[in-house]
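name: query_chain
kind: protein
chains: 1
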Amino acid sequence: MNTVALTIGDEDAAAQAAVTVWRHGGVVAVPTETVYGLTVRWNDPAAWERLFDLKRRPRDKQLQMLAFDLAMAERAGLLPDAHIQRIAARFWPGPLTLVCPAAGEAPGATIGLRLPDHAFIRRALKLLGEPLAATSANLSGAPPGTDVAGAVAGLDGQPDLLIDGGPARLGQASTVAALAADGTLRILRPGVITEAQLRAALQLSIFKRPGNGSSRPAS
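structure:
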């Protein structure tokens, strides 16, 4: 495994090294503002398999998409609507993963999308020109790595490249929320961005929680 130390303010060399590995089907461990992630090109099924093996992640668990912007995600199959646009304007780039409707053969296909707020990964995504498939850098079931040591501890093997960006700024995984086409919002994993902030951005009334009645806005 090669390690590239990230020089703050000069992310180009690290970004170019990562892009070269991704384009050759490799796995890159990268820093983000939340936790470290294991990443491969979104449209590289063979690389997905390597990532699953490294993490011992079940194949039925989806990977997250990291994109530079909504336009990049849309080219890869995201179906943006007014609700997604409103969230994007308020919280992206940032520590939010949004499960969004997506094009696909199966009805109800979704993509868990995040636009990270970290200079290196944004530079690398722009240079690559396509999204990444990502998951937190840790063995499945273990806490996510928030520094380079934690990023590779316990993995079943090693990534092809590790970008050393120091400790993650937030040190906490992103908020995960599901947003349906009708604007219905569910929090799947709490995080830095709160449910109240998301609902305010969507300009929704307070929803009743699932299991306690309707999930539609109060009239």
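note: The CA atoms of residues 27 and 159 lie 5 Å apart.
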